[in-house]
Protein: HVO-A0261-like N-terminal domain-containing protein
Amino acid sequence: MNGINDRLSLCPTRLAYSDSDTPQYYRTLSRAVTQWRDGPIGGETVMTDPDWDDVSFVISSRYRVAAMRRLDEGPSTPSNIADDASVGLAHVSRALQELRESELVDLLVSDERKKGRVYGLTEEGDRVWQTIEAENMV
Structure:
């Protein structure tokens, strides 16, 4: 490993940069390589790549997208998600069940509770949603 490009080729995450020789480019590149090599800098959280199958699964349904978008703001009930997105409650309930089966969403109350069920994003669900937003996929 002689230079930045050798280290960069081993980096598991994609970097966005320009080809110019600006100081900003080198600061950004240096920071990314340091984070990859040494872990978080200054208490930052380093996001790992999401499962792209999960990204595809979410964006292939407007109801799953609506649920994930609302849950990104914080835990919510199916009826609140349906009202916020102006979609049917049955669609949202089905989308939440599918997201739960994919371990992107978690039920925050007991399974026995039938009304007032509160859902939230899992860590993987948050990672998938952040990728969807960062890549402008919705």
Remarks:
- Strands lie at 105-107, 119-121.
- The chain has two domains: 4-38, 52-134.
- DSSP finds seven helices and two strands in the chain.
